[in-house]
């Protein structure tokens, strides 16, 4: 059985990555797309072969045939439209970050519990086998006791009209890509950091953080990372243990058209683990749809989104205070 999906908005990530990937899924069927500009919805639907179009998000949410919605809207619209979709009885997969603060994310949990729908923050990397395999290697102490996770994620974009450079829309490096560094570090350590330190360089034109560096203290080890919206494009994650290291070559934007690989070095030449071609957006959609059909819990519950936002909040606070800050998880 395939879950019938609707999409709120025609964002580039939706039309170029997520929708085509979900259309290849075994459990997902993209049935409708909406835009506040109906012509844009029609154009996207025609290009992607989507049967229904709507000139407003409200119209799509009123479609009783739609079971779940994917929300790729600008960050500041995630919470209000997630809530409206849930209250319309739709399951929701919302792009990251699901909220602008942990407090906002906690409000979404209340709505989920009240409406009984499934809601998940769309960190597609958790569906990719390179990450689940890496966590398994760490659990089995292939590199010895876990000590450190180090990551870098950057690209260059100084377009003032781009939503990633608009502070009021929740733009900036930490919200856009630094959230991945925090999310995957928590995924590998399988616990929450007790304190966080952060430093931010802001763009004077936009008011957004164009470069943020962070240190997360997990007691048993540390995670360190830098993200930037105005730096040479690059991404890499290395995980260090007492006796070796793991390197994930393309940790976040894993390509859907060629294999990925992870390097494991414990002395001598590294072992190379190759992963067959897959699309993490397809896998994400199928896992969510399977939970909807089966009525079982999501692999990544909404509570995880609150914890990730609590760490992001702490990075922002630390950049202002110049001190370690403890994330507020509840």
Structural overview:
The chain has 330 residues and is α/β, with parallel strands linked by helices. The protein has 2 domains: 3-122, Rossmann fold (3-Layer(aba) Sandwich), CATH 3.40.50.720; 126-282 and 309-321, Dihydrodipicolinate Reductase, domain 2, CATH 3.30.360.10. Helices cover 35% and strands 28% of the residues. It has 9 helices and 14 strands. Strands 8-9-10-7-11-12-13-14 form an 8-stranded mixed sheet. Strands 3-2-1-4-5-6 form a 6-stranded parallel sheet, with helices on both faces. Strand 8 and strand 9 form a beta hairpin. Helix 4 (78-87) packs parallel to helix 5 and helix 6 (129-139) packs across helix 7 (173-189). It is globular, with a radius of gyration of 20 Å.
Residue share in β-strands? 25-35%
Cα distance, first to last residue? Answer: 37 Å
| CATH architecture designation of the largest domain | 2-Layer Sandwich
Strand order across the biggest sheet? Answer: 8-9-10-7-11-12-13-14
**Rg, Å, rounded:** 20 Å
Percent of residues in helices:
25-40%
CATH topology of the largest domain: Dihydrodipicolinate Reductase, domain 2
CATH homology superfamily of the largest domain: Dihydrodipicolinate Reductase, domain 2
SSE arrangement, N to C: EHEHEHEHEHEHEHEEEEEEEHH
Poorly predicted spans: none
